Inverse folding.
């Protein structure tokens, strides 16, 4: 019989999801079917995060936090074959897509800032390109510390300021409005991790640059990933032809021999509960 004692009863007063989180969940739920077909960056980043895990790590239970389509849940299941796996995501559509593919024993709809898991229930929390959508990262770290067992590890990859600066600057030249998601500064990651009560084994930023033949290919991929602009202050309605032409002209100044670059500034961190 599967042990379900690690689930935490939800706090009735705080179980509601904030409107912006509902928007994040809905966006990624809609993208579930198309996500894996365009997730080159996500696979590269998650694979890089995996190799940063301590070699001696052997958790009895792992948590894939922000598990998405379950690609890395399945990888974790292979890596830690004797362990029990939990896939948690705020987007129910992602979990519906992932569940038939296996990997984890449990698929849980939940918020990283308020995890429905018991204290000291996991030996590893693995989170690749998910926590950048969390407004209160201090709460994410606090929850990770609560959920981790002594000696447990939180390994996360996230995005910081400088991500998609080419697209941001090109839009800025067109209309000055918010078209690109905002991300936390790396100094904030350093400060919050240092104050989390977890020991920081490593934290560094590594740029990943993808190339596209044209702007439409980039924006199509962002939409297919569910990662298009969901920030407050974004323009409403359809984007006019003149503004699209302006965007294309502005972005062309970044073109290099491989095409149009899109830079992602990725924060990799491994923290340990003493």
């Amino acid at each position: 019989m599967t042990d379900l004692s690690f689930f935490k009863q939800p706090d009735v007063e705080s179980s509601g999801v904030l409107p912006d989180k509902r928007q994040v969940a809905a966006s990624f739920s809609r993208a579930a079917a198309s996500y894996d077909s365009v997730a080159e960056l996500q696979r590269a980043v998650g694979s890089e995060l995996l190799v940063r895990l301590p070699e001696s790590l052997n958790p009895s239970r792992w948590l894939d936090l922000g598990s998405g389509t379950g690609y890395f849940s399945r990888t974790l299941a292979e890596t830690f074959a004797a362990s029990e796996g939990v896939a948690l995501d705020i987007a129910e559509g992602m979990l519906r897509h992932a569940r038939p593919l296996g990997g984890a024993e449990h698929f849980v709809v939940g918020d990283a800032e308020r995890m429905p898991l018991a204290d000291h229930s996991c030996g590893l929390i693995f989170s690749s390109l998910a926590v950048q959508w969390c407004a209160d990262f201090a709460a994410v770290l606090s929850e990770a510390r609560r959920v981790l067992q002594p000696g447990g590890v939180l390994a996360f990859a996230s995005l910081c300021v400088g991500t998609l600066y080419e697209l941001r600057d090109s839009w800025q030249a067109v209309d000055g409005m918010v078209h690109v998601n905002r991300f936390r500064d790396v100094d904030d990651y350093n400060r919050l991790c240092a104050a989390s009560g977890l020991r920081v084994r490593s934290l560094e930023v590594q740029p990943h640059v993808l190339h596209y033949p044209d702007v439409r290919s980039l924006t199509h991929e962002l939409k297919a990933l569910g990662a298009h602009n969901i920030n407050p202050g974004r323009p409403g309605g359809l984007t006019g032809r003149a503004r699209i032409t302006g965007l294309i002209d502005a972005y062309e100044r970044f073109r290099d021999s491989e095409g149009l670059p899109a830079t992602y500034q990725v924060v990799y961190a491994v923290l340990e509960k003493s």
